[in-house]
From TrEMBL:
Keywords: Cell membrane, Cleavage on pair of basic residues, Disulfide bond, Extracellular matrix, Glycoprotein, Membrane, Secreted, Signal, Transmembrane, Transmembrane helix. Component of the zona pellucida, an extracellular matrix surrounding oocytes which mediates sperm binding, induction of the acrosome reaction and prevents post-fertilization polyspermy. The zona pellucida is composed of 3 to 4 glycoproteins, ZP1, ZP2, ZP3, and ZP4. ZP3 is essential for sperm binding and zona matrix formation. This is Zona pellucida sperm-binding protein 3. Gene3D superfamilies: Zona pellucida, ZP-C domain, Zona pellucida, ZP-N domain. It comes from Melospiza melodia (Song sparrow). The ZP domain is involved in the polymerization of the ZP proteins to form the zona pellucida. Its main location: secreted. Residues 9-272 form the ZP domain. One of its GO terms (biological process) is binding of sperm to zona pellucida. The gene is Zp3_1.
Amino acid sequence: RAQIPVEVQCQEAQLVVTVHRDLFGTGRLVSAAELSLGPAACKHSRMDPSQKTVTFSAGLHECGSTVQVTPDSLIYRTLLSYDPSPGSNPAIVRSDPAVIPIECHYPRRDNVSSGSIRPTWSPFNSALASQEKLLFSLRLMNEDWSSERDLSAFRLGDVLNIQAEVGAHSHVPLRLFVDSCVATLGPGAGTEPHYAIIDFNGCLVDGRSDATSSAFVTPRPRQDVLRFQIDAFRFAGDPRSLIYITCHLKVTPAEQSPDAQNKACSFSKARNTWAPVEGTRDICSCCELGNCGRRPA
């Protein structure tokens, strides 16, 4: 049978790309050194001389891969690059560079991640007429909020538009809250160093810092959507440019009035006070105290 030039295995935590060195079916074998994976140009992990194959193994978030979150799937994308080395005569070109797109599709589970943003799902504790799975998403959006942002790279001075959303087929209307968001240099909220963006059950504490305009966007487009903006930042004294943001999302019935444990509060520097997206102003008073009562388990 015909040799498949590129085979991809989408495994649970990594993708495995096997490349036949007769990449173009011409009989000319490409060199392993001419192949790389992803924007980070990761090198191969092993070679099989007998099969004339080169294999790349990489974690789903490694080598500069990107991830798109859809209502049904997580789609990880990366690139296999072929960059031919110059021959002995640099004036002669015998092959062109090539880029082969690679995708791995995974069905949505209870926990998903989106690039450097990693939402974790909170169980819906209020009684529903029927048990169902709530689909939470947390996405970087473009400037006018019309679609997901294609690029995840930011410069200092940029503003990050972040949209949290929950999807449910229940007839019970839901209101979404972002309980907390923590920025770290590694996956997970427990790593060091860390920086709290949202804390105390919905206080956008980053907006309390000097020279920031971070805030929740009001009004909401819908009760099951919550938007907020944060000014781009980096950790001082650390050369790493990738920042992970871990957020805890939760919902209440839309008819339930916001309170100190279920709120979305921003700090207004012009008025020197905290203000909620909805509800009475007093539910935000605990943000200044740094203690809003019981934390979620």
